[in-house]
Amino acid sequence: MVPRMKLLLVEDDPTMQATLHRALTRRGMEVTPVGDGRAALAQWAAQPPDAVVLDLTLPGLDGLQVLQQARTRGLRTPVIILTARGTVGDRIMGLNSGADDYLPKPFDLDELEARLRALVRRSADPVANTALPP
pTM of the entire structure? Predict the structure, then answer.
Protein backbone atom coordinates (compact mmCIF):
# COMPACT_ATOMS: atom_id res chain seq x y z
CA MET A 1 0.00 0.00 0.00
CA VAL A 2 1.27 3.47 -0.94
CA PRO A 3 1.48 5.84 2.05
CA ARG A 4 -0.89 8.79 1.97
CA MET A 5 0.59 12.17 1.21
CA LYS A 6 0.58 14.33 4.36
CA LEU A 7 -0.44 17.84 3.42
CA LEU A 8 -0.50 21.05 5.45
CA LEU A 9 -3.28 23.24 4.03
CA VAL A 10 -2.87 26.89 5.03
CA GLU A 11 -5.99 28.81 3.99
CA ASP A 12 -7.84 31.44 6.02
CA ASP A 13 -11.11 31.45 4.05
CA PRO A 14 -13.32 28.88 5.84
CA THR A 15 -15.29 27.95 2.71
CA MET A 16 -12.18 27.48 0.56
CA GLN A 17 -10.42 25.60 3.36
CA ALA A 18 -13.36 23.21 3.84
CA THR A 19 -13.71 22.66 0.08
CA LEU A 20 -10.01 21.92 -0.40
CA HIS A 21 -9.84 19.76 2.73
CA ARG A 22 -12.76 17.64 1.54
CA ALA A 23 -11.55 17.38 -2.07
CA LEU A 24 -7.93 16.52 -1.25
CA THR A 25 -8.97 14.00 1.41
CA ARG A 26 -11.18 12.28 -1.17
CA ARG A 27 -8.12 12.07 -3.40
CA GLY A 28 -6.29 10.08 -0.74
CA MET A 29 -4.32 12.80 1.01
CA GLU A 30 -4.06 13.27 4.77
CA VAL A 31 -4.85 16.97 5.15
CA THR A 32 -4.18 19.16 8.20
CA PRO A 33 -6.00 22.49 7.74
CA VAL A 34 -4.75 25.67 9.44
CA GLY A 35 -6.25 29.15 9.12
CA ASP A 36 -3.55 31.61 10.17
CA GLY A 37 0.15 32.21 9.67
CA ARG A 38 1.42 31.68 13.20
CA ALA A 39 -0.49 28.42 13.63
CA ALA A 40 0.78 27.27 10.22
CA LEU A 41 4.40 27.83 11.18
CA ALA A 42 3.93 26.06 14.52
CA GLN A 43 2.18 23.07 12.91
CA TRP A 44 4.76 22.86 10.11
CA ALA A 45 7.65 22.79 12.60
CA ALA A 46 5.95 20.34 14.98
CA GLN A 47 4.84 17.82 12.35
CA PRO A 48 6.57 18.42 9.01
CA PRO A 49 4.25 17.36 6.18
CA ASP A 50 5.15 15.99 2.75
CA ALA A 51 3.95 19.24 1.14
CA VAL A 52 2.40 22.59 2.05
CA VAL A 53 -0.37 24.42 0.19
CA LEU A 54 0.03 28.04 1.27
CA ASP A 55 -2.28 31.01 0.77
CA LEU A 56 -0.62 34.42 0.98
CA THR A 57 -3.34 36.52 2.59
CA LEU A 58 -3.38 35.23 6.16
CA PRO A 59 -3.96 36.71 9.61
CA GLY A 60 -1.04 36.70 12.04
CA LEU A 61 1.81 36.26 9.59
CA ASP A 62 1.16 36.53 5.87
CA GLY A 63 2.06 33.61 3.64
CA LEU A 64 5.38 35.05 2.49
CA GLN A 65 6.43 35.65 6.11
CA VAL A 66 5.46 32.08 6.98
CA LEU A 67 7.47 30.77 4.04
CA GLN A 68 10.54 32.90 4.76
CA GLN A 69 10.55 31.97 8.46
CA ALA A 70 10.10 28.28 7.64
CA ARG A 71 13.03 28.35 5.23
CA THR A 72 15.17 30.25 7.79
CA ARG A 73 14.39 27.50 10.32
CA GLY A 74 15.59 24.88 7.86
CA LEU A 75 12.16 23.51 6.90
CA ARG A 76 12.63 22.26 3.34
CA THR A 77 9.15 20.87 2.73
CA PRO A 78 7.93 21.49 -0.83
CA VAL A 79 5.52 24.44 -0.95
CA ILE A 80 2.95 25.43 -3.53
CA ILE A 81 1.46 28.88 -3.13
CA LEU A 82 -2.26 28.90 -3.91
CA THR A 83 -3.55 32.46 -3.93
CA ALA A 84 -5.68 35.07 -5.66
CA ARG A 85 -2.53 37.17 -6.18
CA GLY A 86 -1.62 36.12 -9.68
CA THR A 87 0.44 38.84 -11.32
CA VAL A 88 3.83 37.95 -12.73
CA GLY A 89 5.45 40.05 -10.01
CA ASP A 90 3.53 38.18 -7.30
CA ARG A 91 4.57 34.81 -8.74
CA ILE A 92 8.21 35.86 -8.98
CA MET A 93 8.18 37.15 -5.40
CA GLY A 94 6.64 33.90 -4.14
CA LEU A 95 9.12 31.71 -5.97
CA ASN A 96 12.07 33.89 -4.91
CA SER A 97 10.85 33.69 -1.30
CA GLY A 98 11.24 29.93 -1.29
CA ALA A 99 8.09 28.48 -2.85
CA ASP A 100 8.57 25.51 -5.16
CA ASP A 101 5.48 26.25 -7.24
CA TYR A 102 2.79 28.92 -7.57
CA LEU A 103 -0.80 28.41 -8.70
CA PRO A 104 -3.11 31.43 -8.90
CA LYS A 105 -6.83 31.17 -8.06
CA PRO A 106 -9.09 30.21 -9.70
CA PHE A 107 -7.40 26.87 -10.29
CA ASP A 108 -8.23 23.35 -11.44
CA LEU A 109 -8.21 20.72 -8.69
CA ASP A 110 -6.70 18.08 -11.00
CA GLU A 111 -3.83 20.44 -11.77
CA LEU A 112 -3.27 21.19 -8.07
CA GLU A 113 -3.15 17.46 -7.31
CA ALA A 114 -0.72 16.82 -10.18
CA ARG A 115 1.56 19.65 -9.05
CA LEU A 116 1.53 18.39 -5.44
CA ARG A 117 2.38 14.85 -6.49
CA ALA A 118 5.20 16.12 -8.74
CA LEU A 119 6.66 18.25 -5.92
CA VAL A 120 6.62 15.37 -3.46
CA ARG A 121 8.05 12.98 -6.04
CA ARG A 122 10.92 15.36 -6.83
CA SER A 123 11.65 16.05 -3.17
CA ALA A 124 11.97 12.31 -2.51
CA ASP A 125 14.34 11.74 -5.45
CA PRO A 126 17.85 13.16 -4.86
CA VAL A 127 18.71 12.76 -8.55
CA ALA A 128 15.78 14.99 -9.55
CA ASN A 129 17.17 17.74 -7.31
CA THR A 130 20.66 17.65 -8.78
CA ALA A 131 21.53 20.54 -11.08
CA LEU A 132 22.70 19.68 -14.56
CA PRO A 133 26.23 20.82 -15.47
CA PRO A 134 26.40 23.97 -17.65
Answer: 0.90
